Amino acid sequence: MVLRIIGFVMLLFFATLSANSETLVTDLSQNEIEITSQFAGSELLLFGAIERYARDAIQSDEISVQGLDYDIIVVVRSEPTDLIIRKKENKAGIWVNSENITVRGVPGYYAIASTRPLDDFLSKDIQVEYGLGLNNLSFISEGESNDLQSYKEALFRNMMEKGLYLENSGNVEVKNEILFRANLTFPSNMPVGNYKADVYLVRDGEVIITHNTPLKVDKQGIERVIYNFAHEYPPLYGIMAILVALFAGLFSGFVARKVS
Amino acid sequence: MQIYLPIAELSMNIFVLLAMGGGVGFLSGMFGVGGGFLMTPLLIFSGVAPAIAVATEANQITAASVSGAAAHWRRGGVDFKMGMVLIAGGIIGTYFGAMIFTYLRSIGQVDLMISVAYVIFLGGVGGLMFIESVRSMLRDRRGEVVKSVRRQRTWIDALPFKMRFRKSKMYISAIMPLSIGALIGVLAAIMGVGGGFIMVPAMIYLLHMPTNVVIGTSLFQITFVTAAATYLHSINTQTVDVVLAVILLVAAVVGAQVGVVVGAKLKGEQLRILLAGMVLLVCMKMAFDLVVEPDELFSVSAVNAAEGH
Q1: Distance from CA of A237 to the nearest CA of B (A)
Q2: Where are chain B's structural domains?
Q3: Are B227 and B100 contacting, i.e. CB atoms less than 8 angstroms apart?
Q4: Which CA distances in Å does A6 have to A3, A251, B128?
Q5: Considering the domain boundaries, does residue A258 fall inside one?
Q6: Please, what is the angle between helix B211-236 and helix B175-191, to 10°?
Q7: A with B: how many residue pairs have Cβ under 8 Å apart?
Q8: What is the CATH number of the domain that holds A152?
Q9: Which domain does A41 fall in, by range?
Q10: B120 touches chain A (CB under 8 A)
Q11: Could you tell me the mean pLDDT of each successive run of 10 residues in chain B, 309 residues long?
């Protein structure tokens, strides 16, 4: 029995030593965002802990690591979607939409947060490999344009303006090199669907662990009912809208006559 | 307090919406107009997608005009037969308007069409109203009396398919009211307006209907035509936001009651000049946005929304 326990501890020790010397535990303050009639955007807290017992054990008689040893990157994104980017041109004195391209598989919401600017602790190659940061998002376009770069920049600019794309460095706080937290903000126009919150733990310029937590965003209650009704039964919804209007109009006219 | 609009998919301050509805309701009560031509641009300026603003406004106008239509009906101020002819034309017009709307939405030009339609119609009607009321004010000042001109026979009287309208005491071709109705239908579908500002002058100057049935009949037609527009937009593009429509409607009803009281204290000419000024102001703002280079040349929208699924 005792032998078995010792064996297990040894196994655990070597396993963590050989594979990852750390483990990462993360969670969100909420696993679901509900869009209700009072929804005006949302804030979530992503938090977690780095367990580094194994590494400490080895380093106990070596030089102790000082300062910011780990870096954390948090990426939250919605399901990939297709977007149209349109460009206005001046035609006969007025500004009209002319050229457009369609991009496939870009997130409708994308937020990246980190302890420091990515370039300070991660090489470009690794950023590309893990698709970290807006510039490393896949940008597969349809439609012709000899000016793809400006469309790409315009996409980021537009989405940032709407609060749907966020790039923040320095807003992941690490405490005692163990605990970390990041505040995530979501605007009221966020798309619904299944989101993913990925946490990357970086040491010595290498991503050593990633961990992801799902996040569900959905319309709830009356908002969901109305939206579904409008999209699943358009003719009935149209008739309902007309009846509501007729009733409201006649009723308010009646009340107004009584009052005045 | 924020309220999330399920179809527009954005959250707006409910007090701002109530103030907008109340303000436009006040003006519509004061001037005796529907207010769609003010509300739709206002919604667009405040960030609601133009397609949703237009479709939702059609729904709100149904509510705004039905009680007026009912009141006129009770007083016998509706020419039912004329109304039905106008509605027949209106539904055809709405159908084509909604088709144009859906098509332009799929190629990303619906916003442009809405703006251009507003600039043309508001500019035209506002300009005419302004000139007309300035003239009549000047005439009043000089003490001139307008000579009533005996109505002359025109090409309109020569059109075929004549119908008798007992209430209006007219015997005219059905083609005219049908085409006026159709034009109004197109406008209701693409601009989110009732179209009273076009229909009332058209009934008076083109059809020569007696004034006591003009307003009632036009409200009667507007109720049905905007209902048709609501229905078609719901089917084609799912752009009618009932929550938004109801909020605006409640505030507009209250505002209209106050507006009627204030309007009664002002002179007709003053009212018309004010209204013309306001129409031209909205028109100029829309024209300005079309002509001036926008800060952001690019816009991003979801593919499926643009295709109208």
Answers
A1: 7
A2: 9-141+155-290
A3: no
A4: 5, 81, 96
A5: no
A6: 50
A7: 190
A8: 2.60.40.3880
A9: 24-219
A10: no
A11: 84 91 87 82 87 91 86 85 92 92 85 88 86 82 64 68 76 85 90 84 82 85 92 91 91 84 78 84 88 83 54
